[in-house]
Amino acid sequence: MQLTTTITWRSVLLAAALSVTSAGAFAQDKAGSAKADTAVLKASGVIKDAATGKPLAGVNVSIPTFSAAITDDKGRFTIKVPDYNVTLFVSAEGVQTRQVPLRGKKEIAVRLYDESFESYYAPAVSAVSRKAAVSMVAPVTTIDPEGAWARNQETTDSYLQGLAGGLTAIRKSGTPGIGASLFMRGISSLYTTNKPLIVVDGVIYDNKEFNSSLISGHSSNPLLMLDIQDIDNITVIKDGSSTYGTKGGNGVIVITTATARQKATRIDVGVYAGVNFAPKQLPVMNAAQYRPYLADMLQSKGLTQQQILAQPYMTDDPANPDYARYHYNTNWQDKVLQGGASSNAYLKVSGGDNIATYALSMNYARNEGVIKNTDFSRLGTRFNAELNLSKKLVARSGLSFSYAEQNLQNTGIAPKVNPVYAALVKSPFMAQNDVSDKGDVSPNYADTDTLGYSNPVSIVEKLMAINKTYRFFGWLSFDYQLNSAFSISTRVGLTNDKVRENFFVPSKGIVHDTLQTAIANNRSGTQVKRLLSVYNDTRVAYKKTFSRIHFLEAQAGVRFQQQKFEQDYILGFNSATDELINVGYGAATLRQVGGDLSKNRWLNTYINGDYSFDNRVFINAGVTIDGSSRFGENADGGMRLNGVKYAVLPYAGVAWLLSSEQFMKQLPWVSMLKLRAGYTLAGNDDLGDYTARQYYTSQNLYGMQGLVRANIANPRLQWEVNRKMNLGVDMGFFDDRLRVSADVYQNTTDRMLVRESTPGGTGIDYFYSNSGKMRTRGGELAVNARVINSQQLKWDLGFSLAAYRNTVVKLPQGDIVTPFAGGEILTREGKAANLFYGYKTNGVYATDADAAGDSTINSGGALAAFGGGDMRFVNINGDKRIDKNDRQVIGNPNPDFTGSITTVLNWKRFTLNALFTFSKGNDVYNYTRSQLESGAGYNNQLLSMLNRWRVQGQVTHIPKATWGDPLGNARFSDRWIEDGSYFRLRNISLAYNVKIKTGFLQYMTVYVSANNVFTITRYLGYDPEFSATESPLGQGVDIGLQPQIKSAQAGIRLGL
Amino acid sequence: MVVTCLLAAGCTRKWEEHNAPGDAIYVHNNLYQQIAANASLSRFAGFLKQTGYADTISLSRTFTVWAPTDEALKNLDASVVNNAASLKKFVAHHIAAFSFRTSDVQKAAVRVGLMDGKYGSFAVDSFEDAAIVAANGVAANGIFHTISAAAASRGNCWDYVDSLKAGGLAMAAYLRDNQYRAQDLTNAEQIGVNPDTGEPIYKPGTDSVWRNKFTNEVYDLKREDSVYTVFVLANTAFDAERVRFSPFYATGTTDSTTNLARWNTVKDLVVPGAYAPEQLPDTIVSKYGVRIGVKKSAVTSWHKTSNGYVYVVNEMPVTLEQKFPDFIVQGENYNMARVMPSASIFTRTLVDSFAGGTFKDVFVYRHGINQFYVGYRLNNVYTTTYKVYWRVINNTGLLAHPYVQRLAMGRIDNTATFPYTNIVPYNYNEVYLGEYKVTNYGNGVLSMYLVSANITPSGSNHNQNALLLDYLRLVPAR
C-alpha cells in the first residue's frame, strides 16, 4: 500500500520535472531556430595552458553531431555554432577534457589544466554506461588509482579510505590483506550487510565472507584476490540509482580493471621492497612492579602470609630451586611483536592490433605482519582481452586467478591463544624458556606457567594457523551493435572461490581448553569453504540524439546470479604428541565434524533511462524488479507474478547544469555549477539464504546424532527497502581551479530486518521479521584546488568531510541490547543504532566513609556494599544501589565527522603525494585496556594500575585491586570508553621520474612511500582504528586485533 | 619534521598523563627509600641498613614496616643496639611480609607474621604495645606505619611454662618433662645394612629424638602462628587432682598410676584462642570434650605471651562425669569379626521411629558359622565398675521372634558376662545387661564381642543366629 502511494507520488514528481524541462526546451528551441534560419553563426576563442598561459595548438573543439574545429599555433579557433547557447567540447592529448558553454558569448577564453588535475569532465562508469561525470545525475565519486604503485600492499577496500566522501572504510586490523569494513553513508541496517555492492568489469564480485574463520579475529577478504594495481577506475555510486535493485541498497562500487590503452605493445614492470615497523608498546608493568601487585592480589584472594610465601615466584632466596626460574624481567611484547619485510612485483604486458587487444598482468606480493611469524603472500594473474569479431560484434573477456596464503595468529578475544593479549597479561618475571633449578636455560620453550598463562613465544613459534585462498574470477561478454541506436550485449561471469584453513594449537606452552567431556590439550582444525557463483547480465541498450539537443539513452536488461556455497570443517583434539598436527590424529571420540551448504538465486530486471536536454538538464529514471530465493513466499511488499513476489524499486533523479545557462555569464568566474536531486529506492536482500524457510540443523545429544528445528520460518520475510533522497551541488571556479562539491542526503531503511524474541516455550530464541525502521541523514563536502600552478611547481590540495547521523525510527519490541566483548550495545528508538550502554563513573571512593550506604548487586545476585577504593558509579534513580537500571548511554561509536586531506606536489620530475585521514568524535570501547586495568586477577596490568587505590583517604582515579572484582569496578563503564578521534598521515609517497632517452625504455620511476607515518590520538591503545566486525553493532570495540602498522617501501617502475 | 616530532611527543604524553594523574600517590621509591627519606625515622633506617633488612624491604614483593620514631628508639637498650644478632631480631620484629593497612584490621586486632618468626598484634591504632602515630604510608612495594614506641618481642606460652617450671610449679615441670623417644630419621646416620632384612642400621641415638607428649598430642604451645590459653594448676590443686583421679587408674605401680592421673589432669587445661583476663569464659571445653570451670578468683597470676596467655590457678573445677564419661560404642564401628571381611555383615541406616532422625546399626545375617561374632575394642578404659546397656532394634521380618545373642566382655569365651539374651522385636529402648568391673588399667584396652546363637547353622536356621546392635553403653561408677 505504502509502495503504491510512493510510486504515485514519484510519478507526479517525475512528470513535473519533465514538464518543466521540456517547457524550457521548447523556449530555447524557439530562440535557437530563429537565429539558425537567418545566417551561419560562428563562435571563436582562444585556448591557453593554465599553468604557463601559453596558447595551446591542436586542441579539438567540437559540438557533437554539428561541427568541429582545431586550434592554431596561437591557440585560436573558430567554430560553426547552431546558436550561442551551445556547449563546446574541448579535448587534446595531455590536457584535461572540458565542456565550455558559450552562455550567449561569441568569443571565449579557455584555460586548460594538465591531464593529472582532476576534472568534472573525466569519464565515470555507472552500472550501465560510461559518460562524463558532469552528465551524471547520481552522487558519484570517481577514483583513478593510476596504478596505485605507492600503495600496492593495500586492498581495494582499505585503499578507498578517505578517497570517496560518504564511503566510510575502517580498516579491520593491521593483519596484512585483511581489508576494511565498508559503510556507505553511515548505517543502513542492523542485521543485514552494510557493505556496498562491488561490481568488477560488469560482474558482481562476491565480497562476502561466507561463514566464519576457524582462526579467531580473522576473516577472509575476497578483495585480497584483486590486485589494486590492476584497477583502472573505481566509481562509487552512493545512492540507489545503480540498477542493482535489492543488492544496491548500500550503493555500488564499480571497478574497471585495466585493458590495453593503446595497440602498441607496452610492458610495465614494478619491483618494490619495504619494511614494517612493530607498533609502539603498551606500557605494562615490569617484573619489579608486577610482583608487588601480584602479592596484593593474592592477599585479597584470602591467602595467608605463609601461603603466599610458599608460591614459587615469591622466593627471594637465590638458593631456592625456584629462584632462577621466576626472576626474569621479560618484555613479552618484544617477544611477539616485531618488524617485518614486504615485497611486491608486478608485470603487465598490453597491446594488440585492430582485431584484438589484450592486457596480461601478473603480480606477486608478500607482506609480513608485526606479530612474529605472520605473513601473507599472493600470486595473481589477470588476462583482459577485446576481440572485434566483426564490425558490429565485439567479444570481451576477463580472466583472473589468484592464490593467497596467510600465516596467521589468533587475535581478538582468545586469551589462551592471542599472542599479543598473552604478551600483555603474562607476568614479566616468567622466562621464555624452560629454566633449570640452577638457572640453566633450556632451548625448549616454557610450558604454561603456574599462574595459568600461555607462553606467548610458544604461541608465535609453535601455533600454526594458515589460510589459503584460491579465486578464479572470469567473464566473457558479447556486444552486438544492431544499428546506430540499438545494441544488445550479454555478459557471463563465473566465480570459483576456495578458502582452506588449517590450525594446530600445541599442548605445550598453551593453556588447555575445556570441552564438554574432556580437557583438550592440543587442538587442530581444518576447514574448506567453496563458493561457486554464476552470473549473467543481458541487456538491450538504446542511444540516440534527437535534433542535436535531445539526447536519450536507455537500457533494459536482466541479471541473474546463482551462488552455491559449501563449508566443511573438522576439529580434532588430543593427538598423541604435538608433532601430530593433522585432525586425523586427534582422539576419535572428541572429533567434531560440521559444515554448511547453501544456495541462492537472484533475478533482477531493470529499465534505466537517461535523458539530457542540450547538455543542461539531465534526467535519470528507472525501475528494477527483483526476485530472490531469499524472499518469503508471502512477502508483504512488492508485486506478485506467477506466484512469486518481486521487489519493485523505482528511482529518479534530475540534474541542472546552471553554469551553462545564459544568465550565468554575469559570473564568469563560475566555470561550473550543477545542481542535483534524486529520490531513489533500492533494497537489501542479505536476509540469509533460508531465513524465510523452515530448516533443521544437526545436533548431538549424548552421542546420538539427530536433527532439530533451527529456526522459525517467516514466509512474509522480504527485502529491506532503502529510500534515498539526495541533494547535491557541484561547483567549479576559475576554470575549475577550485572545485567544490557538496551533498546532503537522507536514507531511510523501511522494513528493516529485526530479530524478534519469541516465548521461551518455542525453544528458539528469536525469529526475523521486517518490522524495523532506521534513518540516516548526512552530508559530504569535497573541496579541491590547485593552490600553486606554475610550470615547475604544481600543488593540488584536496579536503573532504563527511558526516552522518543515524536514528532508529522503529523497533517492534523496544530496546535491543546486544552484548559484545563484555560490553553492551544499545539499539533504541530515537537514538543511533549502536550506542555503548553501561555505567557512568564519578571517581573512586577515597574512604569507606565516602562509600557508606552505597551498594551494588554483584555477579552472584547478592547485595554488596561499596567501600573505599571502589568505583563510584553514577546512580540514576537515587536508590543508592547500582544495578542494571543505572545503565545509560556512555558512548557513540559513530564519528561526528570523518574526512581526509590529499595533497599532490609536483616539482620538476618529483611528485610528492600525501593522504591524511581523520575521524572526530567517535567513541571507542577499549576492551583491551579493560583487561589491563581490571585489577581482578593475575593479568599483568598497565602502569596506571600502580596508582590504584591502596590506603584509606587516597584520592585516585584507579580503583583498588581485588581478586575477582566482587564489586564490579571493572564492569562495562565509561572508564573504558575513550575518544577514538585521530588524525593520521595515512600515506606519503615521493616519486621521481627519471629522465631517460626514449628508446627501449619508455619511462622509469623511482618511488619511496610510507604508510601510517604518524597518528595523533588520545586513544590509549596500539591504534584507534579497528573493526572487529562488519556489523554496525560492534564498531569501535578494540578487542585486541593485530594493531595497525607503520610501513615504508621503496620501489622502481619501468616501462618498456 | 618538527611537527612530526611534536606530534610523536604528544602521543607519548597521553600515557604519561594517564599513568600519573595530578594527585597520584604512587611513589617509585621502595619502602627503605621511603623510610630513609623520613627525617623522624632516621634511627630505624640506620638499623635497617645495619641489619641488612634494608635490602629485604627493597625487594619487589610487598612488606609492611612498623617503624618506631627516633624518639622511641632513643632509650633502646644498649645490649640490643650493640649486639648484631639481637638488633637483627629487634628489627625483624617490626617487619611483616605483604601489605597490612589499618583498613585490613577487621577485628580488634589482627596477628601478623613478622620477620623474626613471631606474630605481632596489629590494631587500627596500635602495633603490639606501641601506638601508631602515622598510618598507611605508601611505597612502591608496601606500606609503613610510624609507631611511637619500639615493639619488643615476647616469649611464647611454652617458654613461659618453662619459666614456671623453674619457679617450682609441678604441673609446669610435668608438661615440660613428659617426653618419649620417637623415631626420626632426619639426622640419622646409617652405619650398615642388616644382612637378613636389607634394612638400614643407624648409629644408635641418631635415628630417634625426644618428643614432648603434650606438644605432640594436645597442642604445640611453641607454635607462633596459633594462639592458646594455658591454665597451670598450683601445686596443691595439681596434687589434689592426682588424688582424685588415681582410683580410676589402678595399675601395678604407684608411678604409673600417678602419671596417668596427672596426664588426665593436664590434657584438658589448654584451649586454643587467646583469652585476656577480662575475656576469660566461665567454662572451657578441652580438645577431648571435657568441660571445665574457670574461676577468675582462683587466678593467682597471668602472663601474656607471643602466642596467648598463661594463667596460674588454684582451682579448675571439673566433675568426674566430665573426666570419666560414659563409653558409647556404635554397633557399626566393629573392628573385629569372626570372618573379616564378610559379606554377611551389613551396616543399616534406619529411621529411628522412637527418637526421630536416623541411626546406623550392624546386622549380621546368613553367616553360616556357629557363634559368629563381631568385636569392639575400647581404649583408656579406667578401672571402675560399669553398668552395661545395649540397644538392639529387631525390626526385620527375616528373623525369628525372639532370637538370641550375647555380649562377651574381655574374651569371646567369657559367657559369664553376659548370657544369651532374647532380642524382642521392635524394642527401641536400651536394655540393661548387667555390671562389669575393670580392676586393672593395664594398657587401658577392653575388648567386647557380640556373639551369635550357639547352634549349628543349617539352611533353615538363618533366622535364629543373626546379630543386631545399634550401640553399647558402658556407664562407669564414679
UniProtKB/TrEMBL annotation, chain A:
Localization per Swiss-Prot or TrEMBL: Cell outer membrane
Lineage per the UniProt record: Bacteria, Pseudomonadati, Bacteroidota, Chitinophagia, Chitinophagales
Top-level taxonomic group: Bacteria
Pfam families, per database record: CarbopepD_reg_2 (PF13715), Plug (PF07715), TonB_dep_Rec_b-barrel (PF00593)
Protein name: SusC/RagA family TonB-linked outer membrane protein
Main location: membrane
Example of a GO cellular component annotation carried by this entry: cell outer membrane
Residue intervals of the TonB-dependent receptor-like beta-barrel domain: 461-855
Domain TonB-dependent receptor plug, chain residue ranges per copy: 137-252
Isomerase as UniProt keyword: no
InterPro entries given in the database record: Beta-barrel_TonB, Beta-barrel_TonB_sf, CarboxyPept-like_regulatory, Plug_dom, Plug_dom_sf, TonB-dep_OMP_SusC/RagA, TonB-dep_rcpt-like
Family statement drawn from the similarity comment of this UniProt entry: Belongs to the TonB-dependent receptor family.
Gene3D superfamilies: Carboxypeptidase-like, regulatory domain, TonB-dependent receptor, beta-barrel domain, TonB-dependent receptor, plug domain
Membrane topology summary: Multi-pass membrane protein
Keyword terms, alphabetized: Cell outer membrane, Membrane, Signal, TonB box, Transmembrane, Transmembrane beta strand, Transport
Range of residues in the leader sequence: 1-27
Automatic annotation (TrEMBL), chain B:
Superkingdom of this protein's organism: Bacteria
Family annotation (InterPro entries): Adhesion/Biosynth-related, FAS1_dom_sf, FAS1_domain
Gene3D superfamilies tied to this protein: FAS1 domain (2.30.180.10)
Domain FAS1: 28-151
Name by which UniProt lists this protein: FAS1 domain-containing protein
Annotated organism of origin: Filimonas zeae
